[in-house]
């Protein structure tokens, strides 16, 4: 039997997965997705992944979208996936960043009506852009719609999908986008003053109002012993991570 394929975002949050493989005999194939949760949604629905660890907001947005879709293909065995566990319970801090030399942008108030860069439509960086707009009072919803994109006044001049963190940094420095949201600790490395590739500066932050990382699996695995074994080993990796922070 082929090993299960687990997708993950190659950031520090993925360390417990590697511990699970190293110390607890997790034999699954670990596949990195630097483009983030939105890309893993596509891979799950294409049957290219069995399990994935990603941002809660990305999974919820994808599941909500599929439940509202009339496309019957979303109900096939490969396309169907379900949330099967919590990976990180604490909320995630998203840094709000622009190009280091962008003297025209210095605080969150400067972002209203600007171009938002994001990885993919439906990704965490997409959803959190609208969470930010809601927090700041930039959303003016039509009474007949609950969709953040169905507004009388759109909070951003443009929404620009750019796939990767590197391309987002390029865009805010090249002014094809004005700002983007990304996990704080990943962003922090690029706030320094040294010789950094596509440096950025922080103009704000926002926390998710929910647990930050969830585990999802294709529907056909749910309730089976193979998935339960994987989850047990991943949980063991998480416990090891918490008890051995220096090694992490």
Description:
By secondary structure, the chain is an alpha/beta fold. Helix content is 31%, strand content 24%. It has 7 helices and 12 strands. The protein has helices at 15-23, 37-45, 56-68, 124-136, 165-174, 184-188, 225-243; strands spanning 5-8, 29-32, 51-55, 81-88, 93-99, 115-118, 140-141, 151-153, 158-161, 179-183, 200-207, 213-218. The strands form 3 sheets. The chain has a 5-stranded mixed sheet, with helices on both faces. Helix 1 (15-23) links the parallel strand 1 and strand 2. Helix 1 (15-23) packs across helix 7 (225-243) and helix 3 crosses helix 4 (124-136). It is globular, with a radius of gyration of 19 Å. The model is unreliable at 70-78 (pLDDT under 50).
Q: How helical, in percent, are the residues?
A: 25-40%
Percent of sequence in beta strands: 15-25%
Report the strand count.
Answer: 12
Shape assignment: globular
Q: How is the biggest beta sheet arranged? A: 5 strands, mixed
Helical stretch tally: 7
Distance linking N and C termini: 31 Å
> Which sequence of SSEs, written as H and E, runs from N to C?
EHEHEHEEEHEEEHEHEEH
How big is the Rg? 19 Å
Strand and helix layout:
Blueprint (H helix, E strand, L loop, with lengths): L4 E4 L6 H9 L5 E4 L4 H9 L5 E5 H13 L12 E8 L4 E7 L15 E4 L5 H13 L3 E2 L9 E3 L4 E4 L3 H10 L4 E5 H5 L11 E8 L5 E6 L6 H19 L5
Parallel strand pairs: 1-2, 1-3, 6-9, 6-10
Antiparallel strand pairs: 3-12, 4-12, 5-10, 5-11, 7-8
Helix pairs in contact: 1-7, 3-4
């Amino acid at each position: 039997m082929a090993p299960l394929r687990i997708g993950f975002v190659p950031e520090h949050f993925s360390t417990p997965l590697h511990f699970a493989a190293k110390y607890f005999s997790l034999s699954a194939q670990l596949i990195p997705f630097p483009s983030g949760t939105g890309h893993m949604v596509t891979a799950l629905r294409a049957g290219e992944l069995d399990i994935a660890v990603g941002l809660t907001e990305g999974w919820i947005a994808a599941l909500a979208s599929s439940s509202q879709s009339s496309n019957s293909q979303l109900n096939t065995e490969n396309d169907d996936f379900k949330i099967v566990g919590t990976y990180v319970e604490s909320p995630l801090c998203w840094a709000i960043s622009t190009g280091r030399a962008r003297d025209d942008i210095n605080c969150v108030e400067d972002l209203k009506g600007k171009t938002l860069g994001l990885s993919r439509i439906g990704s965490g960086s997409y959803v959190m852009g609208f969470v930010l707009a809601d927090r700041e009072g930039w959303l003016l919803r039509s009474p007949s719609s609950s969709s953040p994109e169905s507004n009388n006044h759109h909070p951003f001049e443009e929404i620009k999908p750019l796939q990767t963190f590197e391309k987002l940094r390029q865009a805010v420095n090249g002014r094809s986008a004005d700002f983007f949201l990304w996990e704080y600790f990943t962003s922090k490395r690029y706030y320094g003053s040294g010789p950094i590739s596509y440096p950025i500066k922080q103009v704000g932050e926002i926390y998710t109002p929910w647990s930050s990382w969830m585990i999802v699996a294709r529907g056909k695995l749910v309730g089976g012993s193979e998935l339960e074994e994987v989850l047990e080993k991943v949980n063991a990796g998480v416990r090891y991570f918490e008890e051995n922070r220096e090694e992490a």
